[in-house]
Each structure stands twice: as C-alpha cells, then as structure tokens.
Amino acid sequence: MLGYNIAKYSSDGDDASYADSYGSGLGFTGFLGGRWFFSDRFGAYAELGYGVSVLNAGVTFKF
Fold first, then answer.
1. Which is nearest to 1 in space by CA: 30, 32, 37, 24?
2. 17 sits in which H/E element
3. Measuring CA to CA, how many Å separate 13 from each of 17, 21, 29, 45?
4. Band of pLDDT at residue 60, cut at 50, 70 and 90
5. DSSP, residue by residue, 1-63
6. In this structure, how many other beta carbons lie within 10 angstroms of the beta carbon of residue 63?
7. Whether the predicted pLDDT of 50 surpasses 70
8. In the 8-state DSSP scheme, what is residue 26?
9. Which pLDDT does position 37 carry in this prediction?
10. What pLDDT is stored for residue 21 in this prediction?
11. Per-residue pLDDT tens for 3-30?
C-alpha cells in the first residue's frame, strides 16, 4: 500500500522544538499473507507485514 501521512502539530507554549519532529510525507506498507479453509465455510488467515502491524491473524467464515 502507498499512502500519504498528514501530520500537524500546534502548541500554546513558547517551546516549538517538538514541531520539527512531526512531518507529512509518503508512507509505504507491505504485507504477505494466506488464507486456509478447514471446511467449506470455516478457515483462518494470517498476514505478516511492515507498516500498520507486524502480524495480523484471525478466522474467516463463508456464508
């Protein structure tokens, strides 16, 4: 996935040193995964990736 992150920082105080650590820009996320069905309607899936999360897993149902 390719996205654009929009970050904005504001402060009521005089210290603006934190404003330089926030920034907008392009972001890249990649993942690889699979889905396995144990019966005609019930299965599991798993994804490994970089970006939003390292591991995503769960169950899936077909109706």
1. 30
2. none
3. 11, 16, 35, 48
4. very high
5. -EEEE------SSS--GGGGG---EEEE-EEEEEEEESSSSEEEEEEEEESS-SEEEEEEE--
6. 3
7. yes
8. E
9. 95
10. 59
11. 887 877 766 766 666 555 567 888 888 8
Nearest 10 degrees: Cα torsion 35, 40, 41, 46: -10
Find residue 8's DSSP bridge partners.
none
Give me 2's structure tokens: 């390719």
* Residue-wise burial string across 17-49, b where 16 or more C-beta atoms lie within 10 A, e elsewhere: eeeeeeeeeeeeeeeeeeeeeeeeeeeeeebee
Q: In the predicted model, what is the mean pLDDT of residues 31-47?
A: 95
CA distance 26 to 32: 21
Tokens of 56: 């995503």
- pLDDT for the residue numbered 11: 67
